[in-house]
Fold each of these.
Amino acid sequence: MIRTFLLVYLVTIILILILVRTTNADFLDSRRFSNNFLKVATFDFSDKSTANEGNLTQFFNVSAVKAGGFDVKTLRIKNEGSVNKSKLKVSYFYRLGSEVFCNDLNLKILKEWAIIYEGKLSALTLNLELNGKQNEDFIFILSFPENMVNNSACSFDFILEENSVNELFSDTEKLENFVSNF
């Protein structure tokens, strides 16, 4: 009985499949649109020396610093992609050495001769908007306090994180730094 039922069921399915024509409408759906524009953008920035536009990896590398002294470095942010507007976040990351010594260092950042950051290096978090394809030049002044810890060194990074305005694209660069007073 069950065998007969299965045989009838199988024959019915086979007849239905033979008699019913297949259609590709279940697998393909297409529409035509006109006057559409698709633009693909690239997003990349680089940290360059302002003197020769060479790539930077090490930024401050200072030994035997004196109390009350300072060092000056310049940085050029260059838009290497096709996205015109972006946001740049500059932050500090302690790596190793005397954290007390690092925390005593002061930083001043200038853009177009205007001070955009002035304070402790360890408190650095700076958010900027970058426009267009032009270069963005910055001056970093690292100063050493009068009462700094003796025979100390520290290593830290400047982290440069750039995001497109719509935050679909991002790029991160790291500038390594070393400072010692011996």
Amino acid sequence: MKFLFLGADNQKAYDRMKELLSKRGHSLKNISQSDDMYALFQDLKDQIVASDAIIVDSSGLSAVGEFQLAFALDADKPILLTHFTPEDTLSKNITESKNKRLYIKPYEDKLELEDALDEFIEIVIDSLDAKLFMIIPPEVNRYLDWVALHTENSKSDIVRSAVIDVANKDDDYQTFLKKTE
């Protein structure tokens, strides 16, 4: 899975989290650093879209980091906010958030941090599949009904396959994927 790290003011926390995720077979990306606020915002949007989940370290949470967190919450991705207790204090806006996708996990040592990360990875794995409801024309539905009746494929298999084929042929999307690696 691909994770995005926010709280970039703390390189040590980023390196520690990257190591932990790498050991578990996952990747971690950081937001690029730039004085150009527009470029920063574009990178943030792209990296959120490209990520499966987001990890925020509260020790590096500046005003910009809090904005990034708020923007990420709006994107409806699972977010793990780690904070080292008792040194880190979280703002009331964060601690009282009712967002169901925000998981706040305090930790006192590396073992507790690893446990929080493992628990979060399980949550993310369970939430990755998305349901898509759509209105389709009758001729498409007739074809999908025929496929379901006369083949081993389901309607969802055919739609999924068609979307994957289009995505694989979409040069702009493939460029986006390479840019966000």
Amino acid sequence: MSGAANQYKFVLTARWIPEKSDAGQQFMSMRYWVTANLGVGFDYRPLIDQMRFNATFRLVSEDPKGWRPAVLLGTSFDDFTSDGVQTESRSYFATFSKAMPHLKFFGIIPSPYAGAVWITNLDEVRPLVGINLAHKEASLMVQYSGTDTHLSLSRKINDNLSLSAIYWGMKYPGGGLRYRF
């Protein structure tokens, strides 16, 4: 989710990473934007037949012409690794993000973010940092989830659909899609 509102009410995402555990191999999410700042929905993991609630709230919208970042709060249920053991857990996050069009180079706009996530089953807080390098039709996102670095290269097919190549934890290749309507 960006720090700026858009006109879409529904967002469907899916991810396939064949070398992850059953909980993380296949993932789908459907989110409905109740308002421009509140999205609610469900995450579904078909291999373990698990459906969980997710939500994101944009507490502060970024100022596209100034330096004010967006502040996002949210919750989801995801798979996490601690000491080599994978567990599924509810998590709560807060992030600050900011698109920086004034730093545009070769048509690419950098959008860094930083924040933290609290993983309830591990009773652990982890840092979240990353940057999205967005071009008109493609973007590269580099993320650090507190334990691993992830890459995703996305290509916008049209205004509604984008496809992604994912390199999860710098060791597991996969694919993803996002459809907005």
Amino acid sequence: MPYTTDHKQKFDDLKFYIENQDQVRRQSNGGNSILFSYEPDEEKHYIEKATEIFGEEAVFIDISKLFVKYIDGEGWGAFKEYYQDFKNTPHLIFKSDDPSTDLFDMIIVEIQAASDNGKIPFIVRTGCLYGTGIENVNIMEHKAVMNLPVPLVIFYPSKFEDDNLYFLNFKPASKYRCMLVK
């Protein structure tokens, strides 16, 4: 992907919002997150560029790796059986209210750990959340995220069309508690 003026502008906008948390909170209904939107087929390139630009000051939390870690922790057989029992209500598997650790809990722990280490938390490979019952707004509205000293950056494979945001280019998505960089 050639680095174009549009790409540079998006990263300049991202830097501005990271450095101006008060503006993020004002423009995102009290939220503390930045949705960084890009075409899904450009994800690898955007992650590489972000790593180049923010590498020292950020932690990149890869949702695909957390997803695999979660399944490995449960064990494939147990996960498969559990998933079959609850496939119509995936949020009960991946984002439940019970005390056991699920994927959502793992995401929040990683975000908090990045912040505790003085780093900007970026979550990437968020397409893996599709079908889990975990929505971007669940992460954005979590108390730990709302109280971060810097905004959470969510890399978001999506398109913006007719004032609507579409996760993975087809699923209507919320942009209520975030600043959208498109």
